[in-house]
Amino acid sequence: MATSPDARAYEYAQVDVFAEQPLEGNPLAVFADGRGLSAQQMQAIARETNLSETAFILPRAPEVERASGVRVRIFTPQEELPFAGHPTLGTASWLYWNHPLFRGADQITLDLEVGPIPVRFSAQKDDRHGAFGVMRQRDPEFGEPDHDCARLASLLGFAADDLDPSLPIQMVTTGNPFCMVPLRTAEALGRLALPRTGELRSFLERCGAKFFYFLTQATNSGADWRARMQFYTGEDPATGSAAGPAIAYLVHHGRVNSGQTTIFEQGIEISRPSRLHVSAKSVAGKVTDVYVGGRTIPVALGRFFLS
User: How many angstroms separate the Cα of 93 from the Cα of each of 28, 36, 87, 121?
Assistant: First the structure.
């Protein structure tokens, strides 16, 4: 392939995160060395990959990375994010396979815009592809509950009894704020078609959230809870930055036991099945120790050429 003689090559890998098999889960592009790229160029590359997120590793001196972690920036096609779950896990997995200092390490810390996020890796106990990692997220912050299910149901295009009245509508964040919306059934979840209305944007602004995250109990799939997250102009196959707040929310409201490992499934409706292994603890009324894990599988390698 002919390229401009002054073109700079930027190598990247594509990995599937929260996947049990290749071509499942949430795809992520990881650029091994983003030094020399401006924020505007990173944003343009993220639009070019057109994945939910694209991550850029910015290598630093070994002593800095040992002390502070590996610097990473995360972009959607629309904007930079201070934190996102599947890019954190996917990038840490790439470093687990490739980093000269941290290859095969039990724990790798990413230095993100939101601060340091550690990711632990388990010894592989089977012959499946990829690596299994678990990230610890920041302790959650909770907004005020909104118990007016009928009002939000109308805005979302649901019937009032589609929402689960035993759980509140509530903003929760561990770095990226989501409005938790509990639904009664998987059938209701399957009907989700999030309207793009100013009223819904205003609702999110009032409750301090960026996106909605919809939850219901799973049935006959081996998972415990099923989730969906629609954003921008599409749907996210797996949302680690929402799964952490979601398990914190469920523990906080007594629907999941403190410290219990729980499996979320997501992406079923868009043929990208994903599995997220989550847990949180309640200690003296405070939710802490929020963990989100899953398997990352490498699927592709490539280069971008920029003049």
Answer: 11, 23, 10, 8
Q: What is the pLDDT of residues 72-122, one digit of tens each?
A: 999 999 999 999 999 999 999 999 999 999 999 999 999 999 999 999 998
Q: Which of 11, 20, 24, 53 does the annotation list as catalytic?
A: 53
Encode pLDDT of 229-282 as tens digits.
998 778 999 999 999 999 999 999 999 999 999 999 999 999 999 999 999 999
Backbone angles phi, psi at 96, to 5 degrees: -60, -35
Element holding 151 (H helix, E strand): helix 149-156
**Rounded-to-integer distance, Cα 203 and Cα 155, Å:** 9
Show the domains of the chain with their CATH numbers.
12-138+295-306 (3.10.310.10), 141-289 (3.10.310.10)
Specify the pTM.
0.93
Q: Is 11 a catalytic residue?
A: no
Lookup: tokens for 188: 């209701």
Cα 112 to Cα 74: distance, rounded to the nearest angstrom: 8
